[in-house]
Amino acid sequence: MQQAGEFGIDDAKRVLGDVFAPWVQDLNLSIEQFDIAPPAGDADWQPGAILRMPFSERLCRNGGIVCGQALMAFADTAMVLANLAANKGYRPMTTVDQTTHFMRAVTASDVLADARVVRLGRTMSFGRVTLSSATDNKPVAMVSSAFAMLPG
After folding, report:
1. Contact 87/93 with Cβ under 8 angstroms?
2. DSSP string across 5-74
3. What number of helices (H) and strands (E) belong to the chain?
4. 70-93 as b/e: b if 16+ CB within 10 A
5. Percent residues over pLDDT 70 in the chain
């Protein structure tokens, strides 16, 4: 349960709707989980978020395969939301680096992004995203990224 004055999933949903470019909003992303505080006793916990990108033919290339460009934009957006969780609020940022390793094609399935902040510094953030097919929960891609935290 969110305490008064605490940044939570409703705030993250507002950022998702207000901050991103219209074409990113056209991906119809939704936030499934927003992890701002560790559960008791979990030493390996990392702040982050799980997002869903619903399947759409508009995102597919030849052969009905969800295109890499859509997956990369999805991973980048998910990592911004993970940074919101790590920072416990909105902070201007920009992507410095993103490396994507595609593992298999995804067809006719929503895609899930599990985005986690591995290290949050004063000026930089480093994270990882695992993209999975929602149909069988098998990994589609692994993404590592770095973000610069900008002055507010």
Report:
1. no
2. T---HHHHHHHHHHTS-HHHHTT--EEEEEE-SPPTT-TT---EEEEEE---GGGEETTTEEPHHHHHHH
3. 3, 8
4. bbbbbbbbbbbbbbbbbbeebbeb
5. 97
What tokens does 3 get? 């305490």
Give me 47's structure tokens.
Answer: 């702040």
Q: Which amino acid is at 139?
A: P
Q: Which residues contact 97 (CB under 8 A, 6 or more apart)?
A: 144, 145, 146
Average the pLDDT over 66-77 and give the result.
98
Residue carrying structure tokens 């593992």 = 103
SS3 content of the chain, % helix, strand, coil (to 5): 25, 40, 40
Query: What's the rounded Cα separation, in Å, for the pair 149 and 9?
Result: 21
DSSP code of residue 136: T
- What is the predicted pLDDT for the residue at 5? 60
